[in-house]
Amino acid sequence: MEACRNDFIARSYVMATFELYRRSTIGMCLTETLDEMVQSGTLSPELAIQVLVQFDKSMTEALESQVKTKVTIKGHLHTYRFCDNVWTFILQDAMFKSEDRQENVSQVKIVACDSKLLTQ
Predict the structure, then answer these.
(1) d(CA 91, CA 93)
(2) How far, in Å, CA of 20 to CA of 4, rounded?
(3) Residues 70-80: what's their mean pLDDT?
(4) Are 35 and 85 found together in one domain?
(5) Under 8 Å CB-to-CB from 88, ≥6 apart: which residues?
(6) Keyword 4Fe-4S: yes or no (predicted)?
(7) What DSSP assignment string belongs to the chain?
(8) How many Å apart are CA 25 and CA 21, to the nearest integer?
(9) 81 and which of 25, 88, 102, 114 could share a cystine (Cβ 3.0–4.6 Å)?
(10) Model-level pTM?
(11) pLDDT in tens, 10-63
(12) How far is residue 79 CA from its own chain's centroid?
């Protein structure tokens, strides 16, 4: 299915939490699967929206409580933007470094927001 069509569920409901993780691989797969289930009549659009809202909350909680690794990021800041309390950074030639590992990437987009806003 087309990615544009898959967004109909995500855009059909205004939420109090950010939808940061829906563009991740797992979020896009979940949205595509829910879209297919709605299209086939297996799932109602309302239930699909509830699943996405729970996904947003669960991802936020899991990352907050289970991820303890600290990472240093260095790179050339190509673009930055602050809109609706959300920062977006695009880095080129970025290096991610943790205690035991280092990864280099040619370009990365980082989206960040105040975690206090996620729980409203």
Answers:
(1) 7
(2) 17
(3) 95
(4) no
(5) 79, 80, 81, 82, 109, 110, 111, 112
(6) no
(7) --HHHHHHHHHTS--SS--GGGGSHHHHHHHHHHHHHHHHTSS-HHHHHHHHHHHHHHHHHHHHHH-----EEEEEEEEEEEETTEEEEEEEEEEEE-SS-EEEEEEEEEEEE-HHHHT-
(8) 9
(9) 88
(10) 0.62
(11) 333 334 456 778 888 999 999 999 999 999 999 999 999 999 999 988 988 888
(12) 19
Same domain, 97 and 83: yes
Structure token digits, residue 20: 């940061």
Residue type, 1: M
CATH code, domain with 51: 1.10.287.190
